[in-house]
Write a structure and sequence with these properties.
Length: about 900
């Protein structure tokens, strides 16, 4: 199977964007494609390779040409395949996507490593951002803003994460081999590398992507832990160091660090029980224990490694009074351990002290109350004592080097690794409280609700309040939905004094709830539990905004505008009430759920809504894309921190404020027209069952992709209980991507003034980002294949409405951009999409074959051949399109 260099629609030159992509990337993709072709021949013989190549040629012809001959031939080829051959071909194309994706990731890392420190742009890099901030607000204010910087990604399980962990692991091994190939210096080494690549590609091809059972929440926890172990634990101090080096220049390492530990990680995995019956109080407890085990192991190893290297002789680097007292306390705490360490380092006091610290971390992991640390604050105190003694003795570089990295790690991760957040639906709380107030025997569900609060209290006792204190209320519709949580906590623990410390966070999701947000907050903060918590935290308050359900509720355009409006009003309310606000953005990976370039989205937010603090969700596929590689993770953290810091700069806030005023009337027109267009579609008679028929939505719900069900209920007659993630994922699988663009074309056409729209795209950050995201979404649609999905149901009226709006949106977006095709001004991204699209087409034809058979037979057996082929194609299309759910 060989790789193509690039194709475009309607017969335009195949390589019109190839010059923008490094030849090394093209060489890697071509090389891996050739290796896959060899493996296909070895595994399935010439017949399998012939079928794959014949289908590939047909979809390329369809993609490049203006007619439908290639597409018709592709459909015929797929229809004539045996069930076994269809599966083998689907697996071949899916494997190709995994190889292409890893080649692009590898090239991105290559570019990051080769790139010099070019300064970058404000909002994108540390030097440019901080330099611009100093110019605008002065050095002292810039330093104060840096000290208050906080970027808080929250990892969440992905109900439509299609890849098995075994596949992810196999892909990582191939990535390592490609990296190793770059360093191979002779023919023998390259030959051995190629042999191993062929072995691993064979393994990947033969590894079933299909889960036989649905993953449990704890499986999802362990998958997330692999990212912390392999990437985040090591990369976080490197990012702080990068910032410190750039700020201090030649003084870096000789003076105390100025870079704060600005990252905090959160997690919903094992804590998010909204609609997931598999997340219980016991699961939440185990999730926290697993995370603590990982971070304490990491800290102990780091302390041991750094301590072992801290071989400064006491005659040259004497201990100060603080360190002398610490060593004496250590000897009293555990004389045997102190003596054993002292034998190894009799004249190296700093080494002895840090190795004893490592022993205490190990005791903490064993839950040894006698010698273990009570909390991370005590560990930090010991580390800072050692650091201060080194500085006093003149050993400033060891003090500010690896030891400082360890301090940063403790500040970031504590003993809990990621702050575990609990989420539950407001209706569950209402039902539980009604039972409690009525007296009598409590249901199992209510008992479980109460058990969660007891678990939170236990976790805070073991790991500190930071470990678990945020409680998110889904579908917050009133202040009572928030105060109900405090009442339940008291009911669970018996008294207010025994209840855990809780920051109750409203999640405003629907269009109506976003509009009611300020009134709800205003009432909630006047209640006694909120007043008490505000006083304890310095009037800090967190508010979460849901990108998913608002988009499913009113369409992507109105949802974006409603989210902006809600943020502006909440920020104004917070300022008027002396509240330090943190907005928590419930973004998904897909464009229909707030995806797209995150740093650009941050810079487009309303004035006062960021203020140096950003919290957002990072989900399944996005977690591995952003944090799976150390270089990419470092770059992502730098970008996000820079955007968070720069968003509140006077220049950026003035720009967004001026645009909001200038384009207010345009925003209103876009809102009104797009929402009506969206509602005319989704509120049409029979829309919900039609949607379930023309997409693989119901079949996806039967497949073991994630621990959480796709629906809160079971009906296909309404969209109300359908989760927003499978709503988006299903449209993506059908190559329609409706959730990312529907309604925009009608709204732009209603405005009608191309010059005004172009000016808005250039001057209004929110609208400009929206147009860019819609371009990417449209680039991943395919009108012909979308039409074939829409033919699965007998509703020509709804199908025509969707295709008409798709054409209308594409035409108007191109008028605004002035290009001949979408993504024309982003050639590297355009080529990445075009590189994949014909191959995704092949999988779409295979999926359509499976869906037609399922629709005809009415089968609901997830183990039959048609469902198996469907899931294979779900994996492949997700890998090919990326940011899918």
């Amino acid at each position: 199977m060989t790789a193509i260099d690039g194709q475009t629609r309607h017969g335009r030159a195949r390589d019109d964007v190839s010059g923008a992509v490094d030849s090394d990337l093209r060489a890697d993709v071509r090389y891996l494609g050739n290796l896959l072709g060899r493996v296909l021949r070895e595994v399935g013989g010439d017949d399998l390779l012939h079928d794959v190549e014949t289908l590939r040629a047909a979809v390329i012809e369809a993609y490049e040409g203006s007619g439908t001959g290639g597409a018709a031939r592709a459909e015929e080829l797929v229809a004539d395949m045996s069930a076994e051959r269809a599966e083998a071909v689907a697996q071949a194309f899916t494997t190709y996507f995994h190889l292409t994706n890893l080649a692009e990731e590898h090239h991105r890392v290559r570019v990051l490593r080769q790139r010099g420190d070019d300064g970058g742009l404000p909002g994108d890099s540390f030097p440019a951002t901080y330099g611009s901030l100093v110019e605008q607000v002065g050095a002292d204010e810039a330093a104060a803003r840096l000290e208050g910087l906080r970027f808080h990604p929250v990892l969440t399980a992905h109900p439509t994460e299609a890849r098995r962990r075994a596949v992810t692991t196999a892909v990582r091994r191939i990535t390592d081999l490609i990296d190793e190939r770059d360093r191979a210096r002779n023919a023998t080494a390259r030959a051995e590398n190629e042999r191993r690549l062929l072995e691993e590609i064979t393994t990947l091809l033969r590894t079933s992507p299909l889960r036989t059972t649905r993953p449990t929440p704890l499986d999802e926890v362990r998958t997330a832990m692999s990212v912390f172990d392999q990437t985040l634990f090591e990369i976080v101090p490197q990012v702080y160091r990068l910032l410190d080096d750039r700020l201090q220049g030649d003084d870096a390492g000789r003076t105390p660090v100025v870079a704060p530990a600005f990252v905090r990680f959160g997690t919903w995995i094992g804590g998010d029980r909204d609609g997931n019956p598999h997340v219980t109080a016991d699961v939440t407890r185990q999730a926290a224990e697993i995370a603590s085990e990982h971070i304490l192991l990491g800290l102990a190893r780091a302390a041991t490694r750094i301590g072992s290297a801290l071989t400064l002789d006491a005659s040259e680097t004497p201990a100060d009074a603080g360190l002398t007292a610490l060593v004496a306390e250590q000897e009293r705490l555990d004389p045997a351990v102190a003596e054993r360490i002292g034998v190894r380092a009799p004249n190296e006091t700093h080494r002895r002290a840090l190795l004893f610290v490592a022993a205490r971390i190990r005791a903490t992991r064993r839950r040894d109350d006698r010698t273990g640390y009570a909390g991370p604050e005590d560990l930090l105190a010991d580390l800072r004592t050692i650091q201060a003694s080194l500085v006093a003795a003149g050993a400033v570089r060891p003090a500010n080097g690896e030891l400082q990295n360890l301090i940063w790690q403790v500040e970031t991760f504590g003993f809990h690794l990621a702050e575990l957040e609990v989420r539950q639906h407001s209706q569950v709380h209402r039902t539980a409280l009604a039972e409690i107030r009525a007296g009598g025997e409590l249901s199992d569900t209510t008992q479980e609700v109460l058990a969660v609060f007891r678990t939170i209290a236990d976790l805070q006792s073991r790991f500190g309040v930071r470990a678990a204190h945020r409680y998110i209320v889904s579908f917050t519709q009133s202040a009572a939905d928030l105060t109900n949580v405090h009442e339940l906590a008291v009911a669970a623990l018996g008294s207010p004094g025994a209840a855990p410390v809780l920051d109750v966070i409203p999640l405003f999701e629907t269009f109506a709830d976003l509009h009611a947000s300020v009134d709800i907050l205003d009432e909630a903060v006047r209640t006694e539990p909120f007043q008490r918590r505000l006083a304890a935290t310095g009037r800090r308050l967190e508010v979460m905004l849901g990108y998913s359900d608002s988009s499913k509720d009113v369409g992507p355009v109105s949802a974006n505008l409603a989210l902006y409006d809600a943020q502006a009003r909440i920020a104004d309310w917070a300022a008027a009430n002396d509240v330090e606000l943190t907005l928590f953005h419930g973004r998904g990976g897909s464009l229909g759920r707030g995806g797209g370039p995150a740093n650009e989205a941050v810079l487009a937010q309303p004035p006062g809504s960021i203020d140096g603090r950003l919290k957002l969700t990072e989900q399944g596929e996005v977690i591995f894309a952003q944090y799976g590689d150390q270089d990419i993770a470092a770059r992502h953290l730098e970008q996000m921190a820079s955007a968070t810091l720069f968003a509140s700069s006077p220049s950026n806030e003035q720009r967004t404020a001026a645009a909001a005023t200038e384009f207010a009337d345009l925003a209103q027109q876009l809102d009104d027209v797009s929402r009506k267009a969206f509602h005319d579609l989704v509120k049409a008679d029979g829309f919900a069952p039609w949607f379930a028929r023309v997409t693989p939505m119901e079949e996806i719900g039967l497949l073991p992709l994630g621990s959480r069900p796709a629906r809160r209920g079971l009906s296909v007659e309404s969209l109300e209980d359908l989760r927003a993630i499978p709503w988006v994922f299903s449209w993506t699988q059908a190559r329609i991507n409706l959730a990312g663009w529907y309604g925009l074309g009608s709204a732009l056409e209603a405005v009608g003034d191309v010059d005004a729209l172009r000016r808005a795209a250039a001057e209004w950050p929110l609208f400009g980002a929206m147009i860019k995201n819609v371009e990417m979404s449209l680039a991943k649609t395919d009108e012909y294949i979308a039409g074939r999905y829409l033919e699965l149901a007998d509703r020509d009226d709804l199908a025509a409405r969707v295709l008409d709006e798709m054409r209308r949106t594409r035409a108007w977006v191109l008028r605004i951009s002035g290009g001949a095709d979408v993504l024309e001004d982003r050639p590297v991204l355009a080529r990445a999409v075009r590189l994949r699209s014909p191959y995704v087409d092949a999988l779409s034809h295979l999926q359509l074959r499976a869906l037609r058979s399922i629709r005809t037979s009415g089968s609901t057996d997830p183990t039959d051949g048609d469902h198996r082929l469907l899931l294979l194609t779900v994996n492949g299309i997700a890998a090919g399109l990326q940011n899918t759910g």
